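ok so I'm stuck.
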Amino acid sequence: MWDPSAVSTPRKALVALVAAPLALILVLVSAYAVDAAVLTSDSVARNVEVAGVSVGGLSRKQLRAAVDEMAAEFPATKVSIDAGDLHLESTAGDLGMKIDTDGTVARAWAVGRDDPLPTRPVRWAGSVISPRSVDAELTLDGATLSRTLVELQGDKRSDPVEPSITITDGAITVVPGKDGIDLTTNSVASALPSRVAEVGRPIRIEVKRAVTEPKMTDEAVQALAGQANQATTGKVELTSGGRTFDIEGTRFRPAFTVTAGGTPEHPTPQLGMDAARVAELLAANMPPGSRNPTGVRFDIRGGVPVPVPGKDAQVCCGPDAPQKLADALLAGKTKVDLPTRTVTAAEGAEWARTLGVTQVVGEFTTRHPAGQPRVRNIHTISDATRGILIAPGDTFSVNDTIGKRTAEKGYVPAPVIENGEHAEDFGGGISQYATTLFNASFFAGLDIPAYKAHSEYISRYPFGREATLAYPSVDLKIHNNTPYGVVIWPTYTDSSVTVQLWSTPYARGEQTAQNPTGGCGKVTTERTRTFVDGHTDKQNFHASYRCI
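replied:
not stuck anymore, here's the structure
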């Protein structure tokens, strides 16, 4: 039998020297074989870490649970953004950053499995000494990032402002564009990490803020402003429904606009007009008398004002008119035919019901001797104007409404004062009606843009507060400066005439001063108006009586 003790010591040493490496190799091979078997099973490779967390040997389900836990913690990660003099603090979650669970699990699971066969033993051997680290994959939501950056910057950011136009002293002028400054989404997104080696470790990035210029130049917009001013320097002649009228072109300037044409990347400023604004300006600048096209009047029945329908009317303007006018102005045209629309008598009456004609707001009576030819003329003009509606913003003209006084209209010759001389003419005496209407308007607080006192004082009229008429040169005009309709309602007896004005109270007029209070020469009468909102104003009315 062999006796190991018989082996010499040197030989024993040699055997030990050879056996030790072989034993180590055997162990390593056995360990590798065991780990290789693991890789073919449902487990993560040996010594794998995900963002500093050991996951080696975990099942796929356990791996996902571990990564899910990281994903739940990650949104609270502090993020610092340095952009020159701007420093912002936020969190990963508020900036739209998340851990990509699926991507991170896939990378950790692939460790050892996706190594090329020749290198697997080497990489495996390395993993025995130190862990194989996998970073957590991140995703970024751009919309969330953009929204948070806007909130964080507050008034420290600004979008570029494109040049625009405005009205200055009646002319179209340019409002220069302004540069914007912004911490852009793209700059921050490119600086943020796409992976993290440790969950919870603060993230710090450095970026530059971008200065963004307007896409349109001031010079280009200035050229358009000049074009718009040039197109509206004179009057615009408008024809509609057989009626021609002029409107100052400057009144349409507020409707001009500058918009960006071309492409979003390379916009080209274009001159345009806001059709809705054109419609507003067109309506506001229609000539006097156009606001009651159907000629609706009122009747007072049992103390109640009732609209009396007029006739259907063709009026300016049809629905296409604003755009047609805008196109014409942009093309440099100053004469434009505008389409009409029909306003029915019933529509006119219904509109009149909305005007607030409810009560007497002004009234005055003057007296005269009975039985004279002039009395017939007073009655005739009273009958002709009874129930006339002055629409809000319209002006009533006696001469435009009545025209020349003739026998065909029922007027008779009666005494008049003409060029300082006493004579007879058709319509003599109607100045009594004019004076009465003047005073009713005076106390109702209405505007009186046109009037003329007699050349000599007549004692039946209020001193300094009266009006005469002569066709076509001397007129009495009453302007409705209220938001309500005003109805003229004259009545008479054999020896008096009364004019009532029906509306809704808006202002009250009173005589507050007069100089002189009698005699001849120049007379100034002061009226103070008190409006329903409490404010007041004053106007002076003038007469000049020759001394006789």
